[in-house]
Amino acid sequence: MYELVSRQVQTWPEEERWTPPEHSLGYSSLGVNPLSPQRVRVEMRPEPEAAPFRLYYLTFPHIEVPHAFSTRRGGVSVGPYRGLNIGLTTDDSLAAVEANRARFTAASGLPLTPVLAMVHGVEVVRVDGHGDGLILGDACITDKPGQSMMITTADCVPIIFYDPQRPAVGLAHAGWRGTVERIAKATVEAMQRQFGSDPAQLRVGVGPSIGPCSFEVGEDVAAKFTFAFSGSLWGQEIVLQDGKGQGRGCTVDLWLANLIALYEAGVKAENICLSRLCSACRDDYFYSYRRDRQVTGRMAAAVLLPQKS
Ligand SMILES: [Zn+2]
User: Which residues place a Cβ less than 5 A from the ion ligand 1?
Assistant: First the structure.
């Protein structure tokens, strides 16, 4: 066992985050201004002197319920899974993954259950006492006090939703297919329908995931994005033709696509925080399915709706 004595909190340095190119109208028009950085908090537990490991996770200050995005730092896994691999479906040692999960829960206070297992669509599941089970879906929402939820990712875009009025929370797992189909918008609409949430009051955080700097795609995938967002303001900025693959191929901006979906659903730009941290660029902090050619660990995104006080 390890004792948690205190924690250190810092803001992720702005120069280490991806900045939209100057010619990008999409980000600035959606209110994500690279010159006025939105904060992404890095918490480290416990203090380095107090234990043989340092566990880092990320939180968003405007999401005022317990939540965290894990990083790979602070875990016991080795080899390609080096660090805090949370993924039970990888070929990593089960004992190591269980030790990592216990560390994350001890540090963040967040149970890692129930797990949402992605089906690559726009299935939003209302979670209400699922216990430790597995939920099939692409997003989960709850208004049940004491309910936790989690997803695991390694490039896919984790999105957290918080409605302070109901109160209620949501978690979406936006892979490229879910992003094309606007899972972020579907999650907001489900919270509206099920909980009466007002999109204008929702606080949203977009966690570490593969960025526009790294997500090269083939023409078929690019065409799906072009088609799906052709009618959207700034939709033409999602597919970038100047991919870094030696002049070949193009890149897709999953972050902008999800921001547009949130914007279309009525979420206000000032209530969205985009981490702008790319899983593929930062192998010191994140696992990346794409970069590591599928043999890699998983990060957790977890949230807990507290009991009413
Ligand atoms: Zn990148």
Answer: 211, 213-214, 278, 280-281
